[in-house]
Design brief:
This protein is an alpha/beta fold. It has helices at 12-22, 53-58, 73-76, 94-110, 113-121, 145-155, 179-188, 209-212, 232-241, 281-296, and strands at 2-7, 27-30, 45-49, 64-67, 85-87, 138-141, 161-165, 175-178, 192-195, 219-223, 244-249, 269-271. Strand 9 (192-195), helix 8 and strand 10 form a beta-alpha-beta unit.
Length: 311
């Protein structure tokens, strides 16, 4: 068994050692571009994050690309052989982190902690009238592994929770909306919008003026999926016009976010540096190693990506 590791901006040694322990006898190495005129060392499987096209072109015997994140949009931009499978992580510790992040952002807005933070800076002692949870519906765009876990976590705080997905989903206590025809009704029922959609040609720019304008007045956006889901200027306009009360953004079209971007200084926007759910190395190694063992045992593996749908 031969495995090649090609993960941009990731220290390879801890991953390589982890796979050697999880898969004794495996031949695993970190990919380096092969000099012109030399034959590359070929692998059966690859562990990747944002690999370059040269990697795909050189590794002509790969059976599976195991992605160390949930999103596979960077892989789908590459010219991939039709026979090459993409396998994403099911969870690997990310759903708990994502749920923490989203619940924190929702509660911060609902309890108006941003106003208390400002009061603290100005040494002002004041109270704010509690809101009604029944009027504070949270809508989760995307009901995959992460979206479903986030919706279930929000229920623990007794918010009304809705989800929208491309295919029907059944989650206890959650109202589900399905398909393009039901998206307007979902948006109109939403006070806080949480975006957990995969990035595909169909979902790029989905958080635009037309869609965001359908949210309830005083709406709040939490984007933890991809920056290209948001039309930046449309969001800024709706915030400035007062239709939207604020946004918590963890992902951006360009990362790191450029210093001159308007998001940095906007009083209604909270920014975090793509940290809502980080890949957990030990959990990821265990999951990928288990899937590789399943491949050799002729068993079904979860997380195979439909390249046409994009997730």
């Amino acid at each position: 068994m031969k495995i090649v590791f090609c993960c941009t901006n990731t220290k390879a040694d801890p991953w390589l050692e982890g796979f050697r322990q999880a898969l004794p006898g495996v031949d695993i190495w970190e990919w380096q571009a092969t000099p012109a005129g030399q034959a590359p060392k070929l692998a059966d499987h690859a562990v990747v994050w944002s690999p370059p096209q040269q990697f795909i072109d050189e590794q002509t015997q790969l059976q599976n690309l195991f992605n160390i994140g949930a999103g596979v949009d960077a892989l789908l931009k590459l010219n991939l052989p039709s026979s090459l499978n993409i396998v994403r992580l099911n969870d690997a510790g990310m759903s708990v982190q994502m749920s923490e992040y989203v619940c924190h952002a929702v509660i911060r807005y609902f309890r108006e902690f941003n106003h208390y933070e400002k009061d603290t800076q100005e040494k002002r002692w004041s109270y704010r009238k509690p809101g009604l949870r029944s009027e504070f519906s949270v809508g989760v765009l995307g009901a995959g592994v992460l979206g479903s876990k986030v919706a279930q976590a929000l229920q623990q705080f007794e918010f009304p929770v809705n989800v929208w997905s491309r295919s029907p989903k059944q989650l206890a206590g959650v109202k589900s909306f399905t398909g393009p025809d039901q998206l307007p009704a979902f948006l109109k029922a939403t006070r806080v919008l949480v975006n957990l959609l995969p990035l595909t040609p169909d979902t790029e720019n989905v958080l635009n003026r037309a869609n965001l304008s359908q949210l309830q007045a005083g709406a709040f956006l939490i984007n933890v999926a991809r920056g290209k889901h948001v039309v930046d200027q449309d969001l800024l306009d709706l915030l400035d016009q007062g239709h939207m009360a604020g946004a918590t953004l963890d992902v951006f079209r360009v990362e790191p976010l450029p210093q001159d971007h308007a998001f940095w200084n906007h009083p209604k926007i909270v920014i975090t540096p793509h940290t809502s759910a980080r890949t957990m190395r030990e959990e990821s190694i265990a999951q990928i190693a288990g899937k590789i063992k399943a491949v050799y045992a002729g068993q079904f593996i979860e997380g195979r990506v439909d390249k046409i749908r994009g997730y």
